[in-house]
Amino acid sequence: MSSYFNLTTVKAFAFGVMAATLGQAEEFNPSNANTADRMTYHRAVDVAVWAMPLMNFKFYIDALARAGVGPNDIGYNSQVQDWRFQTATPNNTTPYIHAYWNIKDGPVVFEMPASVEGIGIFGTVMDSWQRPLDDVGSKGRDRGLGAKYLLVPPNYDGPLLRNALVYEQETNYGFAVLRPIIAGGPTEENLAKATALTKQIKVYPLSEAEAEVTTNYVDVYGVPLEMTPKMDGEIYSHIHEMIGQEVVLDRDLAMMGALARVGIKRNEPFEPGDNLQAIYDAAGPEALDYMIDQYHRVLNPFVFKGKKWSALVPDGSRETEWSYEYPSYYDYVARGALYYAIITSVKNYGTATYYLDLAETPDGEWLEGNRNYKLTVPADVPVRDFWSITTYDLETASYLRDIEPSTIDSNMSDVVKNDDGSVDIYFGPTAPAGKENNWLPTDPERRFFLLARFYGPEPSLLDSSFELNDMERMD
C-alpha cells in the first residue's frame, strides 16, 4: 500500500451520500449568525461544491482500499454488480473494472490487453479530478489492439518506454474505470471470458517495466462498496486530507485562499472548534442540496422541447474535454454538480454511448418513491446495440438500496412490448397487477431519478429528432 494513501485516516461512515440530520443542521443558522460566521458558512458551501469531483474520487479509492484493492491492483466484478456497488450512476449491464495509482514517486505504466473474439474492454484513464487523459481499449485510442499507456508528471524528462503512448498527468493520483463490452450479453460463459481478459490488465511503476510484473487481482463482486461522498460536516476533514496528498493546480490557487478562510490549510493540522464544526455540519448538506438542484433543474439543458428529459452533462463538456476550464475562468459549479451525479468522465462522449436524465414529473415535481408512475418508451429506439432505463436515489445518485431490479433494457426477453412495439415501464413501491416484468421497484421513503442509456446511438437520437416521453403519474 502506498504511503500516500493512509487507511487510518479513512473515516467510518455508512450508506452513501447522506445529509446531516435536521437537528445537526439547526445548530448553526446563517439567518441569525454574525457576518464573519455567515461568510464562513457560504465559503464552506462553495468549497464543498468545488471539491466534489476530488471527493468522488477519494471515496471511490477509499472503498476499493477497504475491499483489498490497493494502488496498482485491479479490482473487478466476476458478475454484473448489484445495488451494493454504491457509486454515482453506475450501470448494471456490464461488470466494472477498477484501478488507481500514484505517480509522485515516478511514472506509471497502465497496460491494456488486446480484445478477443466477442469480448473487448473500454474505459477512460483520468487524473484525480476526473479529467480524462484518454479513452482506452476497444473504443479508445488503441482500438482494441492493446497498448501500454505511460503516465508521467508535468515537465518529465526521464526515460520512456518503447512503443508506449505517453500522457502527462498533472495530479499525483490517477485512475481508470473500465467495462467489458460483451457481444451476446453477460452470460456465464461470456463473463468468464471477460474475467480472463481483465486479468491481463496491468499497472506498475515504469522502474519495474523490465522486470516480471506481478499484479494483484481482487474480485469485488458482492462486496459493499460505499463510494458516494457523505456530505455532512465530516466532508471537510476529507477535503483537508486530500489537498495534503495532491498537487495544487494553478486554477485552484484562489480556492486555496477560501479553504484557509474556512479552517483548511495544506500541510497544517485540521482542528475545527465547536463553532466551526457546527458551520460545517450545516454547510455540507446545503452544498449537496445545491448540487442536486443545479444538476437536475438548472445546468443540464433540456433535450426535448416541453419535456423534462435533460442531457447527462452541463454545457461545456465537449468544449473543455470535461474539465470546465475555459481560457478566462473555471466553472467549478458545473463540474461539482456533474460529479454529484456521475463517477468518471470520457474523452469522446457520444460515440459509443449517450445518456439522458429525468428527475421530475411534467409539473416539475421530484419523482417520489411512494408514488406510482409509467414511462412509455417508443418503438424503434435509434440505437445499434440496445437501450436501458435505470433508477437511482436522488440524494446519493447511486442504486436504491436493497432493491432489485433497478434496470429494464431492450435485450430482456421477458419484458412485454405493446402491439406497436413500444414498452411501458412502471415505477412504484408495488408492481401493478400483471405488469411485474415491466416494473422497477422504488423505495417509498426516497426520491429517485432515471437515466436512459443508449448504446450505439444513431444520429436521430443525437439531434433529438427522436424523442422520449415524460413520466406519467398513475395515482
From TrEMBL:
Taking every annotated instance into account, which residue ranges of this chain make up the domain DUF1254?
85-205
Q: Tell me which UniProt keywords the record has, alphabetically.
A: Signal
**Do you know which SUPFAM superfamilies this protein is assigned to?**
VPA0735-like (SSF160935)
Q: Where is the DUF1214 domain?
A: 354-458
Write out the transmembrane intervals: none
- InterPro entries, alphabetically? DUF1214, DUF1214_C_sf, DUF1254, DUF1254_sf
Q: Which residues form the signal peptide?
A: 1-19
- Pfam families referenced in this protein's UniProt entry, alphabetically: DUF1214, DUF1254
The identity of this protein, by name, is: DUF1254 domain-containing protein
Source organism (scientific name): Shimia abyssi
